[in-house]
Amino acid sequence: MAKKRSGGGLSPAQQAAKFLGVSVLAGAVLAGIALPAVGALGLAAKGSVESFDELPANMKTPPLSQRTTILDSEGGTIATVYSRDRTVVSLKNISPYLQKAIVAIEDSRFYQHGAIDLKGVLRAVNKNARSGGVSEGASTLTQQYVKNVFVEEAGDDPTKVAQATQQTIGRKIRELKYAIQVEEELGKKKILENYLNITFFGQQAYGVEAASQRYFSKHAKDLTLPESALLAGIVQSPSRYDPVNDEAEATKRRNVVLARMAEVGDISEAEAAEAQEAPLGLKVSTPKNGCITAVDGAGFFCDYVREVFLSDPVFGKTKEARAKIWNQGGLTIRTTLDPSAQKSAQASIKEHVYKDDEVATAATIVEPGTGKILAMGQSRPYGFGKNETQMNLSVDQAMGGGIGYQPGSTFKPIVAAAAIEGGTPATKSYSSPYEMEYPSPIAACEGKTWQNDPANPAKLENENETEVGPYSMKEATAKSVNTYYVQLISDIGICPVTEMAQKMGVERADGGTMQQAPSIALGTQEMSPLTMANAYATFASRGMYCTPVAIESITQRVGQQNKSLEVPKSTCSRAMSETTADTMNTLLRGVVEDGTGTEAGLGSRPSAGKTGTTDFRYAAWFVGYTPNMAGAVWVGDPAHERQMVDITIGGVPHDKVFGGEVPGPIWRDMMTGALEGKPSTDFSYVDIPDSADKGRGDNDDDGGNGDDEADDGNGNGNGGPDDGATADGGTGDGGTGDDGDVNLIGDLGNGGNWGDIFRGQGNGGGRG
Hints:
The strands form 7 sheets. A 5-stranded mixed sheet has the order 2-1-3-13-14, covered by helices on one side. Strands 5-4-18-17-16 form a 5-stranded antiparallel sheet, with helices on both faces. Strands 6-11 form a two-stranded antiparallel sheet. Helix 5 (141-154) packs across helix 8 (188-198), helix 16 (412-421) crosses helix 19 and helix 16 runs antiparallel to helix 21 (578-594). The N and C termini lie far apart (81 Å). By secondary structure, the protein is an alpha+beta fold. The protein contains 23 helices and 20 strands.
């Protein structure tokens, strides 16, 4: 009968011996003995055998998570993102010093034993028994590798990580069985390679390559003897032996490794002594993870790429499946971002709008005919600090943005395109009075109509009392005449406009349905800059709309192999005839030549575009294009609280902000730099005769004295949920001033009030 301790039970040495015997009966020895010597080893032999036998025959080895690199269109790095900062390298690309150092300090008999080291187990059992605790383990490198695989598989789930590292007999049994399998299948060199690539070295570095870069800013193959010993010593306790935070402790540990290397004959005593005298020689690189590290203000574009990956079914059927691939990493994502265009956009933004201004700006450039996003930036940097944000002001809510901003009169060209495509001549003239009621009834979709409220009809005004028609489409577009465009939509109906918008990819930023109300002609539906830039690219490409794309190609590294992943492609479709697009190019060229957008002109390079200012001046826009680039610039308060009246932006004071005055110059400077070195080609135009007479009514005469400095205002000043309109009647829309001040005439409408409008709750104002 075994001797018992005075307090009852077997002594620590006897318990360990009993456990060792049980393990041998199971066909293996539990390596490590990293369990408390008292109270944790009461496992019966039968249970141990069954636990061992019931384990699956093969260990599932997940691909090692690695860093993902996001590149611009020319191959330059935008940012690196990762859940594990790791770059997998082959054994030949790891310094021989490091290979020897890790074996010497972690498992000096690695090349002599199998999956377990019986001598090491017995030594640990004896030492732990004498100490009455766990002073030494006996896990081999193979067993440590297996444990790290379990941890890798657990990912960032704290519960799973705890299960993968818990000090239980069950885990030890599982670890042992798989260690035997790994030894049989991989061999020593491959096990060592895998171990060095999976192990955590502290400071967010997983694997030797990331660790070498983090601590010494060099590749793992170039590590010297003292550097290798330092890294090998960190493994046992990355926090305790962190050389960045405790140089003295790290130095002592490095020297222990060097002494051990000399003891096992890997280096001489003299080499060890010399290396022990060497300084640590750290050349620490800061961890660079995530879109916050992106260059040239491309953090928001970087974030957009991530959103595309997580939302597009091409990368996996479910969001969970896509997230798993993203977190696994090892991706090299080549994007559409043009580095010259991005630098120019960000430089222009920085010049014209300061990050601590009361308002912000966002700008996006796309390529007509391909949908490629070439630039995306904003004045408030990507981050968590003061005057920083993680909200992408350029994109829709579903892709990391807000609920959008009213585009103002930049929506008017969509109304014009719908009219021209439906047969309305570009010479069409309307009386365009300074002030008028919304015409009623107006045809809407599905056979419905919009009705103004006869008891309290909604009215609208132009920006200035001098803006009195008749105007033709050409001059009304250049001067952004509100009453002209409301008369135009009342003639052609609302449905052709919403259908044309859909063909041009114009949707509400919040994913809602476009409202069936005539006020949409004045830009009351909230849009994002990317949406508007891509819509105008349709004009530049002579009527072909292409869905926006951000990713050119993706390669994924799995082990030592690279494979290509399928990526989303832009789909192009004809939104309008070439003649309609050419007509729009002719009309919008006039805006920058002698209309509200003259400050956005590009000199000798042909360009076209449209200004826009929303009600109460919560937002101002310029959206424009050349044959090879289209861009949108929005300026405003994302919170929709600060009206742009008596305001200083970029150090320049403004009484009132107009689309041509602030966004226009941002667009001009952004596009000038982006287009540098690009061919200067012209649009295809049509002849739109100027009117000779000033008359009234439905004729081709222009007239009136428009204010060239005025930008286009809009807004639905009143308010129920349907813009003051229903399919069969209801309250009317509030009028807006052209390019700025809203001029609400009549009732605010059911459901709206001044407080709601000023808070951005009513239909009278765009919301950020």
